[in-house]
Amino acid sequence: MAHHADAKRMLDERGYEGQTIHNQNPAHLLEKPVRDRITDSYYWKEQCFAINEATLCDRAVELTFLGGTYGQQKPTPFLCLTLKLLQLLPDRDVVLEYLHQEDFKYLSALAAFYVRLTFDAVDVYKTLEPLLGDYRKLRRRTREGGHGLTYMDQFVDDLLTKERVCGTTLRKLPQRTLLEDLGQLEERVSPLGEEIKEIDGESEEERRNDEEEDDPEEIEAPLNENGETHGS
Predict the structure, then answer these.
(1) Of 103, 99, 81, nearest in space to 91 by CA
(2) 169: closest CA among 10, 33, 23, 8?
(3) Which of 226, 227, 209 is nearest to 218 (CA)?
(4) 152-172 b/e with 16+ CB inside 10 Å = b?
């Protein structure tokens, strides 16, 4: 009951004194209109009441799409569970376990979104960049209420490069190159780097082979109708 009372106080605008993230009430990492729509939603009232880290995980593995709000500004279950995570504030090890498990892709996506909202900039890059090599398909709820297709790597790239994802304005992330210049991050090596080098090497070898085949010294002079070369 005490934990539930703490969670309720997080949504109270009057003098929150609990744990902060980025110097503010964690729930306020989602904008107030979004929070209000979430707490008024059926999913929040029926599926997010009095749940803990374990039961939240159970809810997350049932997700079949991600997204922000849709239709008449209705929040997705994905967004509702994001607010619940911001209430629960699970330990970092728990978040990383959500992120790295391989059986439930929407649980990984939810954890990635939470990481982007709550971790500091350096840890955001270090934690999320490995998922740029994750090509699992994800369904996305569009604002119009339909569904679109995206991929885990694209979703993570959006988290690292866009200002707004899943109907949420994200805290500004410093450019990666700036953090590299400050010595806080090592230069990132693309997982496609070696493949690109191999392709470039093959292309160069093919070009040299083509040039050798086109060498005029190797081309025989054409024969005339008598079977003699021109000029003989």
Answers:
(1) 99
(2) 33
(3) 209
(4) bbebbbbbbeeeebbbbebbe
pTM: 0.78
- Distance of alpha carbon 205 from alpha carbon 13, whole angstroms: 67
Tokens representing 210 are: 């083509």
User: Which parts of 120-162 fold into alpha helices (H)?
Assistant: 121-128, 152-161
CA distances from 227 to 84, 91, 218, 222, 232 (A): 88, 87, 19, 9, 10
Q: In this predicted model, what pLDDT tens digit does every residue of 164-219 receive, in sequence order?
A: 999 999 999 999 999 999 888 888 876 555 554 565 556 566 666 666 665 555 44
Paired residues of 148 in beta bridges: 140
CA distance 58 to 106: 11
φ, ψ of residue 186 in degrees (nearest 5): -80, 155
CA distance linking residue 98 with residue 111, whole number of Å: 6
